[in-house]
Design goal:
The protein folds into 2 domains: 281 residues, Neuraminidase (6 Propeller), CATH 2.120.10; 241 residues, D-Maltodextrin-Binding Protein, domain 2 (3-Layer(aba) Sandwich), CATH 3.40.190. The chain contains 22 helices and 36 strands. The two termini are 33 Å apart. The protein has 714 residues and is α+β, with helices and mostly antiparallel strands. Strands 26, 27, 28, 29, 32, 33, 34, 35 and 36 form a 9-stranded mixed sheet that branches. Strands 6, 7, 8, 9 and 10 form a 5-stranded antiparallel sheet that branches. InterPro entries: Bact_solute-bd_prot1, SBP.
Length: 714
């Protein structure tokens, strides 16, 4: 879904924090007695509307509005007490010092006609909370260098020590300490910082990692930059953000389970708020916890930027007991954004149906889910990217046709019937796609036309092979370099439904179609597919020239929105294409976040209400910002937004639009119903031996046929 470029995950895995986490296994007594209720302080249109927040020593909350170029000041209750006109047309990062003065680091990137950074400007301004400038601002600092270097120099987070020096966390994940004139004092070396804060003695607290290391939190001495303490954290407990309250001398962290506090050595003591209580934002960029453990967050909610507070309130136990409680698991280990969306969607559902409570748990342990579901237990609803066939064949999932046929309010014409039909197993609908994406190729339209190569969305592997043959002598290749055999791996995967009938438990790898498929795979692998010098990234300099002049396809995009095809394309003129179709089977796969109801659930009707809620127009519009939606009206609204954004950026908004729609309408197979990984990997091991010349065609066919038959009959 937000897997916009899958090969980035495979080529250069970039360190991420808490990639799918286990649910909290227990709660403390205070959590059992209290909950948090959200209140909106301030919001503005545009996901970048609020670019920074900071809290003063008296509880004042300052927020920088990127579009207005103003600082808004609020008291603890969210009442606006003032605003400061910054003046410069730049972005701003905020922090308070020990005397409750507001520091504003202004930044501006100057670009050339190619949209490349050519200059970064900085300036520091200092105000009191009434908006008066109380100290001469620094001179404007100008930084020159390459476009990527300048991006890395942008400051994302700032803290002010007792001497008025600023600690700057940059996009490059480095930390630089500067004085009020923006003169560099020192840099923290040898580690990457994902977040920073400081304690009451000006020691630095860093959320860090080193190459190949686990995520850790380290307290670093201000005096000599030596480690005071260091604590590593497993991925299921790792924070994404940290915050230190100097008044209570308490360090807090935020991850996909909620907000928790640490002891004085960086060990987690307890969670103070779970993820369900922190609804209201799809992405949280910063959080603050005051001395009374009132929580403040800012981030984005759809196309709005919001500042929220969460105050503790006592739970009304009797009301909770009278509610029907539905247990919902979400399994999506590669992405975390959907979990925050789900939290907000659940809150809206509970407001609409006050007699139903959704207990939401994030899981990354598929084996645990398997054990629970296949023994008649588990959640009432399972959402996520799980393989579904085993659950279906063993009766763990309810056939949703039963609910649809008995629901006069559910009109199938309101939804993309192709993706719903493509999610059926036999005649039964056991999983409902909620949002989805599709694997695309981007064609080099100019180079294809210059070489008189015609192609459309119905193209096949055979077409790809023939195109490669026509340009081989011209030094033109199919694509940049990808991991060894990765493209072939993905292509072959989509053909397996033709050779395996799991309902009938039949395999036909000894047919002539499979022999032809093997020969074609080997021919492509031995051809001029990968350009020996071109890398998919970076898209600049000589590498970009090679991609544009010597490659025909920029492959393997997982797209869920139209405008990404234009923005991510390295070509000046783009031809939008699906993956080449297999020679046999005509499978067009889509990758979905699915929902299913446990066949043993005692709350099937309530669970169905929630699935319908997920498919409603407004909810689909909300969660479908970066994905295809199943609800047609929501998809049309989102497409209009994307077209408008493309126009503003100067793109031809309607180029490839019809192809985009046609590809979307051609989808016919939910990835969750594809051949499971364990079986595919067994088959691919034999194919790989064949492609490398270690096995001949007959040996390969015989072994694959035998292994698949054995698997199907186990």
């Amino acid at each position: 879904m937000k897997r916009v470029i899958l090969f980035l995950i495979i080529i250069s895995i970039i360190f991420t924090t808490s990639c799918g986490v286990k649910p909290t296994t227990g709660t403390n007594k205070e959590q059992e007695q209290f909950t948090y209720e959200a209140k909106e302080f301030y919001s503005t249109n545009g996901s970048k509307g609020i670019s920074s927040i900071a809290m003063g020593k008296n509880g004042e909350l300052a927020a920088y509005n990127f579009y207005e170029k103003k600082i808004h000041i609020f008291d603890k209750d969210g009442i606006k007490t003032g605003e400061i006109e910054v003046g410069e047309n730049w972005d701003g990062i905020l922090a308070f010092d020990k005397d409750n003065r507001i520091y504003v680091l202004l930044q501006y990137r100057q670009k050339n006609e190619k949209n490349e950074n050519i200059l970064l400007k900085r300036q520091l301004q200092i105000y009191d909370t009434q908006g008066y400038t109380i100290e001469n601002q620094s001179e404007i600092e100008e930084i020159k260098g390459g476009s990527n270097y300048l991006t890395g120099e942008i400051v994302e987070r700032m803290e002010v020590d007792s001497q008025g020096n600023i600690y700057c966390l940059k996009v490059s994940q480095g930390v630089e300490i500067m004085d009020k004139k923006l003169n560099s004092i020192s840099r923290l070396q040898g580690k990457k910082f994902l977040d920073i804060d400081k304690d009451e003695e000006d020691n630095i607290i860093g959320l860090c990692y080193e190459s190949g290391s686990q995520l850790y939190i380290e307290k670093i001495s201000k005096k000599d930059q030596k480690t005071i303490w260091k604590k590593e954290h497993e991925s299921n407990e790792a924070p994404k953000l940290i915050y230190y309250n100097e008044t209570t001398k308490t360090l807090y962290g935020l991850n996909d389970k909620g907000i928790f506090k640490y002891d004085d050595k960086g060990k987690i003591k307890e969670y103070i708020a779970d993820v369900i209580q922190l609804s209201g934002l799809s992405d949280i960029y910063r959080f603050i916890v005051d001395e009374g453990e009132k929580i403040y967050t800012f981030g984005k909610d759809g196309n709005q930027s919001k500042l929220l507070s969460y105050a503790k309130t006592e739970k009304k136990e009797q009301e909770e007991k009278e509610k029907k409680e539905i247990l919902l698991y979400s399994y999506y280990p590669e992405e975390n954004y959907i979990h925050q969306y789900m939290v907000n969607v659940i809150r809206k559902f509970e407001q609409k149906y006050p007699d139903i409570k959704i207990k939401f748990e994030i899981h990354n342990d598929l084996q645990q889910i398997n054990t629970e579901l296949l023994t008649g237990k588990g959640p009432d609803i399972l959402c996520g990217i799980y393989p579904a066939t085993a659950y279906i064949t063993k009766g763990a999932f309810l056939d949703l046709n039963q609910m649809i046929n008995g629901d006069s309010e559910f009109n199938m014409e309101d939804y993309n019937e192709a993706v719903i039909e493509g999610s059926k197993y036999g005649d039964g609908l056991y999983i409902m796609p909620i949002i989805y994406s599709k694997q695309f190729c981007i064609g080099n339209k100019k180079l294809l036309e210059d070489n008189n190569l015609k192609i459309d969305i119905e193209w096949t592997w055979r077409d790809l092979y023939e195109i490669m043959g026509k340009v081989k002598s011209k030094g033109i290749y199919a694509a940049p370099q990808y991991p060894d055999k990765y493209i072939l791996y993905e292509m072959f995967r989509n053909s397996l439904n033709y050779f395996i009938d799991r309902e009938k438990k039949e395999a036909r790898f000894d047919a002539k179609e499979f022999r032809e498929t093997l020969k074609l795979l080997k021919a492509i692998s031995n051809g001029n597919f990968d350009h020996p010098e071109a890398k998919p990234y970076p898209k600049n300099g000589r590498n970009l020239e090679i991609i544009q002049n010597n490659t025909l396809f920029y492959s393997n995009f997982y797209l869920g929105r139209y405008d990404f095809a234009h923005v991510l394309s390295p070509y000046s003129e783009t031809l939008l294409l699906p993956w080449p179709k297999p020679e046999y089977g005509n499978t067009e796969v889509f990758f979905a976040y699915n929902a299913a109801i446990n066949s043993k659930s005692e709350y099937k009707d309530e669970a169905w209400k929630f699935i319908k809620h997920l498919l409603s127009e407004d909810i689909q519009f909300y969660i479908g910002e970066d994905d295809f939606t199943v609800n047609k009206k929501a998809g049309e609204r989102l497409l209009e937004v994307q077209l408008e954004q493309l126009k503003k950026r100067g793109y031809d908004a309607y180029a490839n639009l019809q192809a985009f729609k046609d590809i979307n309408n051609s989808l016919n197979k939910n990835e969750a119903l594809q051949v499971p990984d364990e079986l595919f990997n067994t088959i691919w091991e034999e194919i790989d031996l064949y492609l490398s010349g270690s096995k001949n065609e007959e040996e390969t066919i015989k072994v694959v046929q035998s292994k698949v038959e054995l698997y199907l009959n186990e």
